Amino acid sequence: MSSAEHKLAIEMKNISKSFGHAVANNKVNLDVRYGEILSLLGENGSGKTTLMNMLSGIYFPDGGQILIKGQEVTIRSPHDALELGIGMVHQHFKLVDVFTAAENVVLGLKDKHSMKQVEERIASICDKYGFEVDPKKKVYNMSVAEKQTLEIVKVLYRGADILILDEPTAVLTPQETEKLFHVMNNMKADGKAIIIITHKLNEVLSVSDRVAILRKGESVGTVETKDATESSLTELMVGKKVELNIERPLVKDRQLRLSVEHLSVDNEYGAKVLKDVSFEAYSGEILGIAGISGCGQKELLEAVAGLQSTAAGSSIRYTAPGAEPEELLEKNARQIRECGVALSFVPEDRLGMGLVGSMGMTENMLLRSYSEGKSPFLSMKEPKHLAKKIKKELEVVTTGINTPVRKLSGGNVQKVLVGREIANAPSVLMTAYAVRGLDINTSYTIYRLLNEQKKKGVAVIYVGEDLDVLLALSDRILVLCEGQVNGILDAKTTTKEEVGLLMTNLKSEGGTSHA
Amino acid sequence: MHKEPLIRVAKRDGMPLYQNILIRAVAIVLAMLLVVLFVHFTAGISAGTTISYMWEGVFGNSIYLRDTVFYTAKLLCIAVALAPAFKMRFWNCGAEGQVLAGGLATAVVMVYCGNLPAPLLYLVMFISALALAAIWGILPAVFKAKMGVNETLFTLMMNYVAIKLVDFFYNKWKGSASSLGKLNKGTKAGYLPDLFGSENSWLLLAVVILTIAVYFYLSKTKHGYEIAVVGESQRTAEYAGINVKTVTIRTMMISGIICGICGFMTVAGHDHSISSSTTAGGYGFTAIIVAWLAKFNTGFMVLISLFVIFLERGTSHIADKCSGFDASASKIVIGLVLFFVIGSEFFINYKINLRSKHDKEVA
């Protein structure tokens, strides 16, 4: 049965929405049928989330019509949306940590069912589609994938037959992603309409029936997935051809830069976030760090940058070109930075840490260098020059170098940050989730910048999520699992499956292998 | 099934300057209309009389004008003192106490060291005023920096300590002072001499210098940059290698010291007395509003201080002239106007969309 025979679930006609002068959606058309999976594709700031938020009742369109099951409707609130059978699973989970799965599912519902009935219904939903949810498990004990499953079960329990998933795979391992696609296909077979937002083209191609593409807030068109390729989709999305190869230049002369030994970090409750981590980083190499989110990547980078207190017995030694090794743990953040060790971005907190949101590019350039010189006054000349240079070279889209960086889109914020860190001529460059939430074009710009640094002889440490990219970009991959090094692999020979397995299954003591 | 909501609120993406000024002007005009109505019904005077009384109370003669200048300068001085702290998002609600601390230290030195030679006496008064006010500012900062104690509550509480200390000395000195509470009324020791023929000039001079200095301190110096970064995000500040504790304490010391200057000038240069109700006179709290309305820009503070004092002096003059309208009524008026002015911020940041006709037809 071809998808054309299915009934229309959603029709959005000429939908427009502006925020101030910024037009987020301009006469966008979109339709979704029951029993199909539609991918919504577009660069950052192309208006995908805005469009979906109008379906789920968070925003109200300025113009246009929304038809559900052929009926024109007005969606004023998430409550209205749910009544129409539209359920959205957001990127940031909306669950109560101290409640059980079942309690979260019924939270806010008025019907009076006993917990037993609720659990039975959850069990029947799970059986039907192949979910695994333990109704009695508390949310704080759940993994990211379990929480996401619970979010989907929650909207299904509420009777949704139109599901919107906003970047659901961004936080999942390859195995978990496969599981998610499996249940998505089961839901599709049951006649549900599913919209998935994702930046990963291979996922788009493998899971969806059709792909709707937005560019700069306008619909570029909808294509059948079977007729599409990664490069054709990218071209539609960006508006021009984009080279989709990640280089891995070989640098011959590698030298030891960073030597981390027995690094342990305790969190504020005394639990080990990092346990006996040892590794080395070399100049002219990209060391990839893989791991499911929250298994110590952030602490690892911050410990090296001097922003994280470490447990006794830890050692982080840095060897500058032609110098003796120095112990970094005895230095503060500023001294470490002056050695040439740069922590460039932690976008989990892109604006909360690397940049000051209310300041313009110029003032943000000052963040690293403002204290230089003896004068009590700020010197704006050099930062202004640098800001202009970065704006030009990295094609930062901004109304001016004094526009608060908070107003820039995610990708541009990232460029400002990486531009500044690279301008410092570091000898160790650490990046975390450098391309999280970034569109394809910007992502490849960032990969290119990192490779340029590598070729210059910088030791690059790249914490990433997308295993395809990690495998293509890195020279070696260190896999973290529960705060421990679960293996260091040669990126040229390893497979996605091997890395994924190491991310989730902690090997026994002493089982780490060096590539 | 559903109608479009009648009113929707959307965030604006900035607006031209003239529109910004227009909205504020409309707010003030509306507020003044309400004031005139309010005065009409309480004091029973016409709109014209209300405005002319207010004008008279503010600029009517040299005595009124002198007071206007003094109180504007005083309010401005405290608002300027708050600017660095607020820029750091350290909600210093303790300016009242810091001014009182400065005033109290001045008074204590005047009373107990009154026989020191004049220049030395002034110097000791000045330094002790600054030191005590600085302590009043630093204490909450230290607790915030070291233990994360909430600064709003801490600075508020410090006000009460200062008020009660002042009350204690006020009662202790009541016998020796005149009925007006003048200190050293016989010797006039510690009274600042007139400068350029006016006792106001000292405060005025100090305020002009401070307003300009704080403006440059915040926008052009490394310290100012640190304050802005700490205010935005402590994590970012740490990442940039800024010592957040040092900056917090240093900034509150500056805030306290400027309040101390205000307390010193008030007691030694103008009041020559001390009391918990007049030395700071609630300006420590009014200044919070001034600082906020000026978005921590000391230049705007000049205009806003003048506006607030205009209302205050103007309405209290109406209260002097008319029965049925007293000091509390004048406070209501100030509250009303500030309500409008602060309310206009909403219309500057957001726009209101009414349900469009098209949707009505559909629904």
Explain what you see.
The complex is a heterodimer of chains A (515) and B (363). Helix content of chain A is 33%, strand content 25%. In chain A, the strands form 4 sheets. Chain A has a 6-stranded mixed beta sheet with strand order 6-7-8-3-9-10, with helices on both faces. Chain A has a 6-stranded mixed beta sheet with strand order 16-17-18-13-19-20, with helices on both faces. In chain A, strands 2-1-4-5 form a 4-stranded antiparallel beta sheet, covered by helices on one side. Chain A has helices at residues 48-55, 78-83, 101-106, 115-129, 144-157, 174-189, 201-207, 230-238, 297-305, 333-339, 350-354, 361-369, 381-393, 410-423, 440-455, 467-473, 496-504; strands spanning 8-19, 22-33, 36-42, 63-68, 71-73, 86-89, 162-166, 193-197, 210-215, 218-224, 256-266, 272-282, 285-290, 315-319, 325-327, 341-345, 428-432, 459-463, 476-481, 484-490. Chain A folds into 2 domains: 3-238, Rossmann fold; 252-340 and 426-438 and 456-515, 3-Layer(aba) Sandwich (Rossmann fold). By secondary structure, chain B is mostly helical. Chain B has a domain at 68-296. In chain B, 73% of the residues lie in helices and 3% in strands. In chain B, helix 4 crosses helix 10 (244-271). The chains are: A alpha/beta (515), B mainly alpha (363).
